[in-house]
Design brief:
Blueprint lengths: L5 H4 L16 H21 L4 H8 L6 H24 L3 H22 L2 H16 L10 H29 L5 H12 L15 H20 L11 H14 L14 E4 L6 E7 L2 E5 L9 H13 L4 E8 H8 L4 E12 L11 H12 L3 E6 L5 H15 L23 E6 L5 E10 L4 E9 L7 H15 L4 E8 L1 H5 L4 H12 L1 H4 L1 H9 L4 E9 L5 H12 L15
Parallel strand pairs: 3-4, 9-10
Antiparallel strand pairs: 1-2, 2-3, 4-11, 5-10, 5-11, 6-7, 7-8, 8-9
Helix pairs in contact: 2-4, 2-5, 2-6, 4-5, 4-9, 5-6, 7-8, 7-9, 13-15
């Protein structure tokens, strides 16, 4: 892809992916080795020196250097334990600090007791990390280091102040100079010149915990990754809408124009994905939009975009066509259900298998119900408000659900070409409606909303769908994408024992998510079933991706701390 300055275009573009990386297993291995070397440093710092080495060492340096070196080696060991977690999460800044601490710890091991073996272990691991630095690709905000350097002194002073107050409270023979020294040594996790009253023997342990906690807080501040750019602007919306009109031939493409989605474009702005971030998961909605030749490079860049921010990449609602696109990037896929697609031209109410739908249509028609189709942009403000009131009554105070397969509103210029089929009773009052969004490049539409008054007769929804199919046929529409049926194949036609187990598991949750009833409703119209997949990162990434998907779709309430939304 040709590189275009995204700043000048106002569009967030994924940077080209970097293929020069070390194997994926190197980061967890390096983290494990760092933890092992940390424990080695701790054990070495907490055990006495060898007598023969100590005699040699005392000819080179003064006796006062040895306890200081022991204390600093102890702190280095604790620091390496903390840094190991950052390495496991592929943080670039954790790599840089780990190499620095390892080099320093190697010197400290020589100074404190001529511990050559420990020193060589530290330096060898530092060399391995430098060699494998390509495996640590999670980047950090440029200003986060400057911000952290402002906060770190405050954290250190706070820890010192709390420790000093504890020493002042519990020391048996107090002096200001002795208290300052004791506080310094205890923060280095070793003992100083003072002793504590019998009831305050816990103070050194508490200060050691305080010191370790301060290190963890500093590490958390330093290792925060790049944030995903959440950009919503007229430029991104218009560019996304333009690409949907030109290349959005998937039945879920139009849903990328929801207000709660963020858009990431290829570097040449010829393709994009819609996404959100849920608890460290970059959740992409449906298939990428763009010309086929631009999608492989976009997929690589999206993967790199997620990786450098420490996000797990997942795709909700990937089609059979693009599932392989993501699998080429090392992702895995899991079948989550089928999209029901009705052939408008061949659909008929004739015949015994569809008699229940036919009976509903006949009963409602005799009761005076009618249906009409309108472009949403042609409705007056009063008519639009009437539809919104029906929608509000149907939801009964619940928030709008959906992320990948529904719209979030009936308002917006991008929705003017969408279609509503309105059902009215014998008095001409609006009692329900269906909302369809266009599928560009195909003579097809996708169902977005299906709403009705709760006191309407049974069968009104079937009536609206059947009448909608007839009205769409008059407008030369060939296909209608109905609701998504979760785990339909697993529950009704499993191919192996594992799928039968998953089908039984899905049936357990049916009372909470109406899995079976939605499938049966779709099946009434004899659709073509098109599978959809949840694409996820790593062998253990499926539960995390599934939870993020359910949070995004509104199927599960998301616990929140404070009022802000976590961005990963």
């Amino acid at each position: 892809m040709a590189t275009i300055d995204s700043a000048s275009s106002g569009l967030p573009a994924a940077p080209p992916s970097d293929e020069r990386r070390r194997p994926g297993w190197l980061a967890p291995l390096a983290a494990s080795l760092t933890a092992a070397v940390a424990l080695l440093n701790l054990a070495s710092a907490l055990t006495p020196n060898f007598a023969d080495r100590m005699r040699v060492l005392l000819h080179i340096e003064g006796r006062d250097f040895v306890p200081i070196a022991h204390a600093l080696a102890l702190v280095a060991g604790v620091a390496l334990l903390v840094l190991a977690f950052g390495l496991a999460r592929r943080r670039r800044r954790a790599l840089e600090l780990t190499v620095l601490v390892l080099l320093t710890a190697g010197i400290l091991n020589l100074v404190k007791g001529l511990d050559i073996e420990e020193g060589l272990a530290n330096w060898a691991l530092a060399a391995l990390l430098v060699w494998g630095r390509g495996a640590f690709y999670v980047r950090h905000e440029r200003d986060s280091l400057q911000s952290a350097l402002k906060v770190v002194p405050a954290l250190v002073l706070l820890a010192y102040g709390v420790a000093f107050l504890a020493v002042r409270t519990g020391a048996s023979h107090w002096s200001w100079s002795g208290g300052a020294d004791e506080t310094f040594w205890l923060l280095l996790m070793t003992s100083g010149p003072l002793h504590f009253h019998r009831h305050f023997h816990w103070i050194p342990t508490a200060i050691a915990i305080l010191s370790a906690g301060t290190l963890v807080a500093i590490a958390w501040r330093l290792f925060r990754p790049l944030a995903a750019p959440f950009l919503r602007s007229d430029a991104t919306r218009h560019a996304a809408a333009d690409l949907v009109r030109r290349h959005g031939d998937d039945t879920l493409s139009f849903f990328k124009l929801r207000e709660d989605k963020h858009h990431l474009f290829s570097s040449d702005h010829q393709a994009f994905v819609g996404y959100t971030v849920e608890s460290g998961v970059m959740l992409v909605s449906g298939d990428p939009v763009g010309p086929p030749e631009a999608l492989p490079a976009l997929a690589r860049d999206v993967r790199a975009f997620a990786e450098v921010r420490g996000l797990k990449l997942s795709v909700l609602g990937a089609s059979e066509t693009t599932r392989s696109l993501w699998e080429e990037q090392g992702l895995r896929s899991f079948y989550i259900g089928d999209e029901a697609v009705v052939d408008v031209g061949s659909f008929s109410l004739e015949g015994r298998p569809i008699r229940k739908v036919r009976q509903s249509v006949t009963r409602l028609a005799k009761g005076g119900y009618t249906a009409s189709a309108h472009a949403l942009g042609e409705l007056s403000e009063r008519e639009l408000c009437e539809l919104e009131r029906i929608s509000d009554r149907w939801r009964a105070g619940a928030p709008e659900r959906g992320f990948s397969m529904a719209m979030d509103s009936l308002r917006g210029e991008h929705l003017h070409d969408s279609l509503v089929v309105v059902a009215r009773d014998g008095d001409g009052a609006v009692r329900g409606f269906l909302h369809f969004v266009p599928v560009y490049g195909r003579r097809a539409v996708s169902l977005s909303f299906m709403r009705r008054d709760r006191d309407t007769p049974n069968g009104l929804t079937e009536y609206m769908v059947a009448r909608a199919i007839e009205l769409l046929r008059e407008q030369q529409i060939d296909e209608l994408s109905l609701n998504f049926a979760a785990f339909a194949r697993l529950m009704h036609s499993p191919s192996n024992a594992f799928e039968r187990f998953l089908g039984r598991l899905a049936s357990v949750f049916n009372p909470y998510f109406q899995i079976e009833s939605l499938y049966r409703f779709n099946a009434k119209f004899f659709p073509r079933w098109e599978p959809r997949y949840l694409v996820y990162d790593g062998p253990l990434g499926l539960p995390r991706a599934g939870l993020a998907a359910m949070w995004a779709e509104g199927q599960l309430p998301k616990p929140r701390i404070g009022s802000g939304k976590a961005a990963g």
